Amino acid sequence: MQLQIIAAIAAGGALGAVGRHFVVAQVTHWAGNGFPLGVLAANVAGSFAMGLLVELGALVWSPSPELRAFIAVGFLGAFTTFSTFSMDTVLLYERGAIWQCAGYIVASVVLSVGAFFLALSLVRAAVT
After folding, report:
1. What is the pLDDT of residues 69-116, one digit of tens each?
2. In total, how many domains does the chain have?
3. Residue 103 falls within a domain, yes or no?
4. What is the mean pLDDT of residues 52-63?
């Protein structure tokens, strides 16, 4: 991988992580801690931005590989990984792979949340 691509991803990732922190903190300050609305806002905003990037890139805009890596992989990847999940889901749907799309959604949510619970259990068992 080219050094310029790696640098673009790193710079975008730093900004995306700070941006996510800012959004989550601001929304949490505004809405309170009862529901993870800040995280939801970051995930939805990142998915929306990824959708814009993908469609603009397909139809009217041809950013350089470095700029694409900066925005899509770096910034949006750090701002939210949900944007990538959304893109993959929509691609499956638009390809007509409806059952694969549904399976991907269910498997991603169930397995990811399940893996999180499993990790919690393993750490708790090891530490307590």
Report:
1. 999 999 999 998 788 789 889 999 999 999 999 999 999 999 989 988
2. 1
3. no
4. 91
d(CA 100, CA 17): 31
* Domain-embedded: residue 35: yes
- Within-domain flag for 38: yes
Determine the structural domain holding residue 44 and report its residue range.
Answer: 3-80
Model confidence at 33: pLDDT above 90: no
List, for residues 40-52, the tens digit of each pLDDT value.
899 999 999 999 9
- Burial of 29: CB neighbours in 10 Å, binned 0-12, 13-18, 19+: exposed
Q: What is the largest CA-CA distance in the chain?
A: 56
Q: Whole-angstrom Cα distance, residue 128 to residue 67?
A: 47
Distance CA 24, CA 39 (A): 6
CB 23 within 8 A of CB 38: yes
Helix, strand, or coil (residue 13)? helix
In a domain, 60, yes or no: yes
